[in-house]
Amino acid sequence: MQKLTNKEEEIMHILWKLEKAFVKDVLAEIKSDKPHYNTLSTIIRNLEEKGYVSYNAYGKTHQYFPIVSIEDYKTKFMNTAIENYFNSSYKNVVSFFAKEEKISVDELKEIIALIEKKD
Fold first, then answer.
1. Rounded CA separation 14/60 (Å)
2. Are 10 and 29 in contact (CB under 8 A)?
3. What's the rounded Cα separation, in Å, for the pair 20 and 65?
4. Residues forming beta bridges with residue 62, ordered by sequence position
5. What's the burial of 50, exposed, middle or buried (CB within 10 Å: 0-12/13-18/19+)?
6. What is the pTM of this model?
7. What SS3 class is residue 53?
8. What band does 119 get if pLDDT is binned at 50, 70 and 90?
């Protein structure tokens, strides 16, 4: 799975949300920094080349849809981030969020309960 640019990732989130969309539909969903229609079309074709989307052709127009699920992308993204920034240690991830005060004691207790239920 190739790495996506920020703009490609933004477009993928739109396609995951819409499930199937023409370029004009994707363009309508972009809130700020709207690219030109042709630029967006090129980005979506790049996503196709990278294996993230496919399309159904209707004459000269294409309706695009994701072929990589958000769950698969999330798993790959998180595994890569944990490997690159936390030495492949989930303990380091949780410690980071605890130190940054991004996770509460109650949330940590919920996580422990989830882990204990798996055993």
1. 22
2. no
3. 5
4. 57
5. middle
6. 0.81
7. strand
8. low
| pLDDT value at residue 1 | 80
Vertex 58 angle, CA 53 and 61, to 5°: 70
Residue 59, CA distances (Å) to 15, 40, 48, 77, 102 in order:
21, 19, 18, 36, 50
The alpha carbon dihedral of 93, 97, 100, 106 has a sign of negative
Both tokens of 59, joined, read: 């004459």
Compute the distance between CA of residue 38 and CA of residue 23 in angstroms, rounded to an integer: 9
Contact 26, 44 (CB under 8 A): yes
Q: For 30-63, write each residue's pLDDT tens digit.
A: 988 899 999 999 999 999 999 999 999 999 999 9
* Count of C-beta atoms within a 10 Å radius of residue 4: 19
End-to-end CA separation in angstroms for the chain = 32
Question: Which residue, 47, 41, 35, is CA-closest to 61?
Answer: 41
With cut-offs at 50, 70 and 90, classify the pLDDT of residue 101.
confident
DSSP for residue 55 = E
